[in-house]
Amino acid sequence: MSAFVGKYADELIKTAKYIATPGKGILAADESTGTIGKRFSSINVENIESNRQALRELLFTSPGALPCLSGVILFEETLYQKTSDGKPFVEFLQENGVIPGIKVDKGVVDLAGTNGETTTQGLDSLGARCQEYYKAGARFAKWRAVLKIGATEPSELSIQENAKGLARYAIICQENGLVPIVEPEVLTDGSHDIKKCAAVTETVLSAVYKALNDHHVLLEGTLLKPNMVTPGSDSAKVAPEVIAEYTVIALRRTVPPAVPGIVFLSGGQSEEEATQNLNAMNKLELLKPWTLTFSFGRALQQSTLKAWGGKKENVAKAQATFLVRCKANSDATLGKYVAGASGDSAASESLFVKGYSY
Amino acid sequence: MASFTSKYADELIANAAYIGTPGKGILAADESTGTIGKRLSSINVENVESNRRALRELLFTTSGALPCLSGVILFEETLYQKSSKGTPFVDILKEGGVLPGIKVDKGTVSLPGTNGETTTQGLDGLGERCKKYYEAGARFAKWRAVLKIGPNEPSELAIRENAYGLARYAAICQENGLVPIVEPEILVDGSHDIQKCAEATERVLAACYKALSDHHVMLEGTLLKPNMVTPGSESGKVAPEVVAEYTVRALQRTVPAAVPAVVFLSGGQSEEEATRNLNAMNQLKTKKPWSLSFSFGRALQQSTLKTWGGKEENVKKAQEAFLVRCKANSEATLGVYKGDAQLGEGAAESLHVKDYKY
Fold first, then answer.
1. Under an 8 A CB cutoff, do B256 and A256 touch?
2. DSSP string, B132-166
3. How far is B87 from B91, CA to CA, in rounded Å?
4. How far, in Å, CA of B280 to CA of B239, rounded?
5. Does residue B4 sit at the A interface (CB-CB below 8 Å)?
6. Which of A24, A164, A225, A327 is catalytic?
7. How far apart are alpha carbons B294 and B68 in whole angstroms?
8. pLDDT digit string, tens, across residues B44-62
9. pTM of the model
């Protein structure tokens, strides 16, 4: 068979399809200990386990939020944490129709001889780790590959190397019952225009799907987490409708219909921008054979973090803020979002950090 | 730009979309002089220009046939021929709402060191030839790459070489205003099962779309002409629904939604088989972002040829037989063929010739 059909095939297909349910999306809450530390320091909160647990509990127990979500990506530590009532987070999520996922890559390392390009590590013993995560309740995984746009970037080496890493990761996941989210992020950093981003995104995605085919990955049991197609961070902004058109055209040219869902990353976009762009894509009258939804980290949590500030007395307010973003993005997956509904200034704040490393 | 923007871009997109109009398909009437000779000799007709012209006139002037067609592929000689009344064939077709197309490849040659695998030639001076054909009224082109299934076939070399040839041909066509039909035919010869055919088809198509992306071909201005996914010629037949399932799944896994239409070749299938299989595909309830139609040669002309036998007095009856197949296939593109086409003589006859050479 061109695609590997192992013992988990039916389950993978079902899980991937569920995650892609219109009206739902993914909360990316898989910040590593180091990364969540940066978020905490921006709101003057100490980076200790209890605070990390408190934040995730705040998010997961927000009234009304979980119905907007089909999955949550977790960092390893969180996979084994519990609510203050003693219930494992994983169980809590499952009971509320949300599938737990797990970040499995081990960050990026430089590609020697390139101009600051990287590859992602994490393949060693990945199979064994996936088995453990499956036992702990995870049913999907995430691996982030990073590419950049420059005068001679992304280089052929970087594209081939990252595509291959994603393909090996994907097939190992499928061997062990986890739906692989394939994430080839093309960073927004730069002064290039939207056409350049489109060209690079199409080239990268084409290489990714060739690699997935070479490695016998079952596309019906995968998800794609790409960047939206936008101008570079140093270039002028464009309307959501323009982003929607370039993005959907790029996907139509490269992503086979067998892929059930595309779950966008938000990159450095503000909460409001990300939602409006997703909404515009779902309103676009172009044939789209996969659902278009979200897998947002910062773009779901930014204003919630600010509202919380680490203080117990702010939890309810923070949860209400979180619900607003969840609902907004749920509406956006259906093309029903009405801009300005939230009116929160924090929601419009750009989350772009130059050369962002997780 | 990931895809190169030809000055003909809008026209290419419009023509490709038109060819994929539901209810219509392509008549492949591009048999080379040598090949048409074999057909004519099977009905005891001399292979002279006037007979070749008479056959094509018979087909193109069949009352009611042209509305079932969106395109006709011609051999170079035919592009410049006229009806007995002196009307250029190209004009007859255009007036009937049918786009003229042109076969531009120059046949296959062996790949040394392989077990009988081939590559296709015809790239030299192709740009100039395309310009001339465009001036003569052609608006699309066809190039046939051939692969086979065996213990070690198709080899990586054969796949890459043929994919490369198709991509170069496609880019050159688009530079010169012709919509390229991309035809990577995997021969049905062999005793393999349908799974093996599916695997080979998926591998080959994935390589084709990677090559097309590498060569900056604009997918919205192309068409795909693949084999259906079937068991080998020496294996047991399967139901049309099974052919449909495997074929459409293979396409879902490899053909981006930007491609407007898939126009199947009939290979060695009988007229009736080919129609039923196409019909089953269009009845299948699954994601199909491209229209599924026909580009049949033998499977449209076989019984017509037999009925004609080269005799003027048989023209009317032969035209009736041709209309029956045109209508049947038109219905099949809509999934409404009831299998009740009056079978002309030979309509159920297999047209498989081992290791068929055009």
1. yes
2. HHHHTT--EEEEEEEE--BTTBS-HHHHHHHHHHH
3. 7
4. 9
5. no
6. A225
7. 11
8. 999 999 999 999 999 999 9
9. 0.92
